[in-house]
Amino acid sequence: MSTVEDAPPQGGASPRGRGHTARNAAIVVGAILVGFVVLLATRGVDEGSSTRIVGQAAPEFRGETLDGETFNLAQHRGEWVVVNFFAQWCTPCRVEHPEMKAFVERHRDDPVQLVSVAFDDQADKIREFFAEAGGDWPVLANDTGRIALDYGVNGVPESYVVAPNGQVVGRAEGVTADELDSIIEGAGGLAVAAGGSGS
After folding, report:
1. What pTM, to 2 d.p., does this model score?
2. Which tens digits make up the pLDDT trace of 101-150?
3. CA-wise closest residue to 157 among 92, 82, 83
4. What's the half-sphere exposure (Cβ side, CA atoms, 13 Å) at 79?
5. For the domain bounded by 62-195, which CATH number is listed?
6. Regarding beta strands 80-86 and 70-72, do their DSSP bridges make them parallel or antiparallel, or are they unpaired?
7. What is the structure's pLDDT at 100?
8. Residue ranges covered by each domain of the chain
């Protein structure tokens, strides 16, 4: 049976044609509503998973850095730690990178540590990126999937600020050095780290 509709006679659409038009309009409206509901439901899940650890204890992790040393988050208790998830293929991450360099340089003599965790990337590509763009903080490039899952990372760049007491006090997607400082200041500032306890 053909699915091609007959052309309506001149002088106006036939009742049959109007019926098809109404049915098609109803289908389109229904599809839009379903898409809207799915969008809202998905957005809610993403927001929940990416912010669920703010206010909670930071998931512990350890791993080998690009220079062959071991980074262990637990060994940095008493310091502010920024855990930055990134990828060298990510354009916003590349835009953010100079801000990370500025943040590290600004806090060279402070109880503040930055660690970058590669997200769905290759160690050799990351090494090439840092050789070209600069940066001398710990970078974890291998077996980082579990860390991203524990932190609820949805995409990159994402950064989590961990207070000296081990609690996650902030999260940002694409961040400046000033914004990181603002998160730290809002959670007690550098004096908290000097005391070795969180707020």
Report:
1. 0.73
2. 999 999 999 999 999 999 999 999 999 999 999 999 999 999 999 999 99
3. 92
4. 17
5. 3.40.30.10
6. unpaired
7. 98
8. 13-51, 62-195
